[in-house]
Amino acid sequence: MQTALLHLFERGLDGITHPEAYILRAARNLAIDRARRERCIAFSSLDEASLPEAACSQPGPERIVLGREQLARVKSAFLALDARTARIFFLHRMEGVSYSQIAIRMKVSVSTVEKAVARAVSGLALALIDPAELHPSRAIGR
């Protein structure tokens, strides 16, 4: 999902009428590409002992401020979701309930659950993008 967002960030929103659909399609295509690559090339993982030690394990002040800003945007986006979409997303992502179990609990189809999760994920992912970074010319005071 991050790579898809990076592609959108690099490209900008110009000419994209449905950014949520664009991100979901890009993420799907990237997942397919990754699965194809992994079938062809086997990678061995590194054990933790062989990894170099990080220079600083604590985030710097700029990273802390950036994280707080992103959290505020995601919180606002979550609160903007309709109640059913927010509930479905919460059940699936936070409580680990399967799509079929959510559908039974909420008396909706599995397709409805899938679409609600996709809407929530794309909305929250878009909230992580700083609008000023997408359109630097529109940024005020930068």
From TrEMBL:
It comes from the Bacteria. The keyword Iron does not apply. The keyword Transcription regulation applies. Pfam families: Sigma70_r4_2. Residues 74-121 form the RNA polymerase sigma factor 70 region 4 type domain. GO terms for biological process: DNA-templated transcription initiation. One of its GO terms (molecular function) is sigma factor activity. Keywords: Sigma factor, Transcription, Transcription regulation. NCBIfam families: sigma70-ECF. PANTHER family: RNA POLYMERASE ECF-TYPE SIGMA FACTO (PTHR43133), RNA POLYMERASE SIGMA FACTOR FECI-RELATED (PTHR43133:SF63). This is RNA polymerase sigma factor 70 region 4 type 2 domain-containing protein. It comes from Swaminathania salitolerans. The lineage of its organism: Bacteria, Pseudomonadati, Pseudomonadota, Alphaproteobacteria, Acetobacterales.
